[in-house]
Amino acid sequence: MANLKDIRDRIKSVKSIQKVTKAMKMVAAAKMRKAQDRMEQARPYTNSLDEIIHHILPDVDREMLPLLDEREIKRKAYVVVCADRGLAGAFNTNLLKVAQSEIDQFGKDNVDIFCIGKKARDYFTYRNYNIIESHIDFWAEMEFENAIMIGRSVIDHFTNGTVDEIHVVYNYFVNVAQQEIKSETLLPLRYDSIEDKVVDRLYEPSKESIVNTLIPRHLNVQMWKYLLESYASEQAARMLSMENATSNAQDMIKDLTLQFNKARQAAITTEMLEIVGGAEALG
Known about the structure:
Strand content: 5-15%
CATH topology of the largest domain: Pyruvate Kinase, Chain: A, domain 1
Structural class: alpha/beta
Strand order of the largest sheet: 3-2-1-4-5
CATH superfamily of the largest domain: ATP synthase, F1 complex, gamma subunit
Number of helices: 5
Mean pLDDT: 87
Distance between the termini: 33 Å
Order of helices and strands: HEHEHEHEEH
Shape: elongated
């Protein structure tokens, strides 16, 4: 059994860690509320824009815009949206496993990777994947301009013919306790014809003009959505992880306190037996 000093030091150490995890939980909760508000404000606009394009695209000539060009898929690009920091449970690990599985299935030599977040960059750099760009250290001051900058590089990679398809792997915010890993095709845009819809809409000036105007904006908004969803998911995962760590630390303190009391009682009993034995010897 460990001596009293060792147990006392362990209790002190666990209490210090518990204070840190509790503080990190509160910080993550504050960041998550702000991130969730921004994400929920962006969702209606994203969905409306997506719905409009969904209705128009089947009726226009895909050759009118390079972003609609469907080619034989010989090479792909993946945008992997991760975090800069850990301590968020399996938030980064699960997403990176899904991304790596899809990339390996197609063939890592035929895939270019855009890494968003240090964890994605470090993960794929260590495994010698073909990384085109990395974007890090912008989450704390994230603005729509970040999405435009990232989107511009990704879109150019498709329009210049370097790759034939672009996928995005990110965490979708379901609720505080659940984040869903999604893999979506960003380019080329694909929408099925809507046969069961009977809504007749009149578009001005024309469907072609609207497509030319909306699709570049739509892609920027989609990239903004990926960043917002991922950041809110990260903070929710970190908050939950730190809450579990704080609870586990409390349980550990209880076990160590019980162990400390047993050790102290054993020491007291031993001292009493020694005193009684010494008194009997003198008698």
